[in-house]
Structure formats: C-alpha cells, structure tokens
Amino acid sequence: MRLSRYFLPVLKETPSEAQIVSHRLMLRAGMIKQAAAGIYSWLPLGFKVLRKLENIVHEEQTRAGHIAIQMPILQSADLWRESGRYDDYGQEMLRMQDRHGRDMLYTPTAEELVTDIFRGHVSSYKDLPLTLYQIQWKFRDEIRPRFGVMRGREFYMKDGYNFDLTKEDALHAYNRHLVSYLRTYERMGLQAIPMRADSGPIGGDNTHEFLVLADTGESEVFYDSDVVNLSLANVGNGLDSLNYDSHEDMQAIANFFTSTYARTDETHDPKIFESQVPEERRRVARGIEVGQIFYFGTKYSEAMGATVQGPDGKPVPVHMGSHGIGVSRLIGAIIEASHDDKGIIWPEGVTPFHCGIVNLKQGDEEADAACDKLYSALTALGLEPLYDDRKERAGGKFATMDLIGLPWRITVGPRGLKNGVVELTCRRTGESEELSPEAAVTKIAEIYEGIA
Ligand code: ATP
Ligand code: MG
User: Fold this and answer.
1) What is the spatial distance between Cα 421 and Cα 439, in angstroms, rounded to a whole number?
2) Which ligand has an atom closest to residue 291 CA?
3) Residue 428, H or E segment
4) Half-sphere exposure of 340 (CA within 13 A, CB side)
5) Among the atoms of ligand 1, which is closest to the Cα of residue 209?
6) What distance lies between CA 362 and its chain's CA centroid?
7) Is residue 389 within 8 Å of residue 2, measured between CB atoms?
8) pLDDT band (50, 70, 90) for residue 237
9) Same domain as 250, residue 163
10) Which numbered ligand comes closest to the C-alpha of 190?
C-alpha cells in the first residue's frame, strides 16, 4: 500500500477522552472512530488488525477440530425464555420489538441459539463430539463503556460451544480449548494466563479466564508466580506437538492451571492463597480478561431438550461448555502490552503491514526507483509493505511509522543508495543496520517465514 493513496487519519493531538494508552494510541493511529458510547467504526488500519486476529482465531479453532458457523446478531426472545435467561440477563441485554410487536434482542452470547441448532439436527451419540463456533459482533449494554475497544458495548467475539455425550468428553473439550487458546494468544505475541474464576450468569463451576497482566487491567488477580513460568514453559515446549484428540495430552497441560493458584478477584480466597502458596511466590496484580472457557454440564440441554440417543438407545441430555475470546478487546490488550512513548509496537503475528518503506527524498529519481523496486520485491513474496511516498519531511514520516508501530522499517535515501545500501530498523529495539536492498528483502522474508 502506498500511503499517499491510503486512508490513515492519524491525529497529532492526544485525544482528551482517552484514559489509557491503548485507547489513546488507537485513536491517534487512526484505527477506530467512536460512533456512539462504546460503539466504534473500524478504520482501515484497525480493521486490518481485527482481520489478522480473526484469522489466527479461525486457524487455531480449525486446528483443534472446531467447526465455524455464523449465527444472527438479532435473536428472538422466545429461545431465551426457554432457558430462563430472558429475565435473568438483566439490563446488559439490549431488547427491542419488531413491527409485529415480537420481542427481539441483540445477541450478548449465543448458548440458546446454538442449542436450538443442535437439537434440530443432531439426534445420535454417533454425531458427537461436536464443537461449533462463530466470530460475531455482540452487544452488551455496559453501564460504563470505557477504555475504547476494551470495554465496548458492541464488541467482536469468538464464541464456541461443545456438545459431548459424557462429562469426561466435555472436560476433554474444555482442556482442548484451554490449550488452543494458549496457542492463539501466543501467536498474537501475548502471554495470557489461565486463571480460575466465577462463572457468573453462564452457570456451572468449571471455568478459567485468560488474563493478560497489565496495570490498566480491570480485574484484580491473585496468583502463584510459578504459574507464569509454567505458562511460558508450556508454550515454549511447543504446544505444536500435542495431539488435540488425546485426553492425556490435553489433561497434562490443563493440570498446570488447575493445580496452581491463579484466580480472579471474584473467587479469590485469601485464606487458601496464604496457606498454599509460599509468601515469596504470592503475586497480586491487575489483568485484562481476553477470554474465558466454561463447562456447564447439562444446564442448557436439559432446559431446552437437547438430547441424543445414547449407545443403549435411551435419550440423554448432552454435556456442554462454551468458550469466548474477546477479539476486539485483544487489540487493546496487545497495545497495552506492547508500546513505547512513540507509539504502538505490533508483534509480527498481528501487524497490519509487514514493514514500512520510508523514502527520505520523494521525487529523487534514484530514491523513488529503489523504493518501487523494494515494494515490488516484497509484494512478490506475499508480504505487505506500507510505502510512505508522501512529500513530507523525514521527521514526520518517522513519527507516523513509529506511531502506527510496524515492526520493521526500511529507510531509503540518496546518500545510502550511493553506497548501495538502505537502512533496516527494528521498531522494538530501535536498532538499525545498513544492508543492500536485496539483503533487506531477504531478511524481512526470513523474519516472517512461518508467520505471515
Ligand atoms: P467482563 O468480565 O470483562 O465484563 P465477561 O466475563 O462478561 O467480561 P465473557 O462472557 O466471558 O465476558 O465474554 C468472552 C470475552 O469477551 C471476554 O473474555 C472478553 O475478552 C470479551 N468481552 C466481554 N465483554 C466485553 C466488552 N464489553 N467489550 C469488549 N470485550 C468484551
Ligand atoms: Mg468472562
């Protein structure tokens, strides 16, 4: 993409309404624009990152054997009356009526709808296990939307639902989700720690939230410092080699996070924390919830008659769980975890463009030609550069690149070209090296091998 033809409305001023750094940077980098309280339009740069995250989620869900569907945003209230949640859900549910006076709602989650799909089409235990998921907009009429996309009213969420014959199978599905979520966050350059939590209105006792530690997080969390090391070690040891169908493989990873003390404030018990966890390993911190998994047994299947014929021919209610990833919130979480005073620093796995090209002397024949050549060479390799081809001073171009946070920048100017070199700069470390344009392309291609 050539910046002169792109739509990147960066802001010079720091927006006063934004209280935390990710919100400020998303507004300044022209990623989002508020449409109403807690509701945002996604501008090109933000939308690109959202799509990248969405792709990673799809890929990891597919790898775990889960099947993508798409359910509607507007739902009839009837199903929610069947489960009893129409009255229970409270004011976070946005309710409305259609022209015939039928009660409708904007989906805050979709257990009812997916259970209705299941009961309409699945009747035998032979069709299990089954996990269906979607990535879809949700609406919760949060009393205090804030922090930009972190606590919106409309937000983008992956929600998945497993249907299993037995509790044991459903717990395997739970563990499989735990592992697939660890992989998902790791590919986004994030460390999200599974911590035990309260299940809230979804119901059931088995639940983990995934927390990214950050001072601006809304949850207070309590954990044994070993859990962070274990979480890192697991990802480092290659979740890649695990077999998602193996109950043992999944259980082995999940065990770390059930046996180690890590809880969000809702279920924190100071007595247990103090008698279990040695003092030097006790940590109290703040975290951003980027996902949650639940096992809730037969709560919905019994209420809504979602049964299958078991091996003995008798109908049995299926065991279920649900699992969510806050896709739009993750963008805020990634920025909270990865920025400096100049702007965002995208992890390679989610960056909107793979690298920037800065032409120090736009209009100079040689510099323009060298940039064009770099641009085509990178594009031919399937990479997406953002070429700043505007007639602007170098300082302004660097500031824009730093703000929008592309992990690599190639700087091209007449002086370097005389010696046959361009400059390659790493956004994270600030380190630069001079190398031939061809070598720069090769290096960038190597960096993204296996990522892009
Ligand atoms: P929270 O405790 O932050 O209100 P939740 O526990 O109610 O979230 P879940 O039902 O677990 O949310 O939804 C799954 C994921 O969706 C959450 O882990 C979170 O990442 C994301 N999410 C929930 N509410 C919002 C929101 N208002 N804005 C953005 N993302 C959200
Ligand atoms: Mg939650």
Assistant:
1) 9
2) 1
3) none
4) 12
5) 18
6) 38
7) yes
8) low
9) yes
10) 1
Q: What is the pLDDT of residue 202?
A: 56
Cα end-to-end distance, the chain, whole Å: 16
Average pLDDT for 109-113 = 95
Compute, in angstroms, the gap from residue 321 CA to the centroid of ligand 2: 13
Tokens at 55, concatenated: 């792709």
Q: Give yes or no: residues 324 and 375 share one domain.
A: no
Residues 438 and 339 in one domain: no
Q: Is residue 115 within 6 Å of ligand 1 at its C-beta?
A: no
Q: Where do we find the tokens 């702007």?
A: 343
Ligand 1 close to Cβ of residue 103 (< 6 A): no
pLDDT tens-digit map of 149-179: 999 999 999 999 999 999 999 999 999 999 9
Question: What value does the mean pLDDT take over residues 338-364?
Answer: 98
The pLDDT mean for the chain works out to 95
Which of 276, 309, 344 terminates a domain? The answer is 344
Which residue range is the domain that position 359 belongs to? 355-448
Shared domain for 17 and 55, answered yes or no, is: yes
- The pTM of the full predicted model, rounded to 2 decimals, is 0.96
Mind listing the pLDDT tens digit for each residue in 382-410? Answer: 999 999 999 999 999 999 999 999 999 99
**77 and 135 belong to one structural domain:** yes
Residue closest via CA to ligand 1's atom 16 equals: 326
Residue to probe by mutation, ligand 1, list 22, 111, 329, most atoms within 8 Å of CB = 329
pLDDT in tens, 93-107: 999 999 999 999 999
Nearest-angstrom CA–CA distance, 38 and 149: 7
pLDDT score at 67: 98
DSSP 14: P
Q: Which residue has the tokens 């735990």?
A: 178
Residue 231 CA, ligand 2 centroid: distance in Å: 20
The reply to whether 339 and 363 lie within a common domain is: no
In the predicted structure, residue 205 carries a pLDDT above the cut 90: no
What six digits make up the tokens of 411? Answer: 């700087």
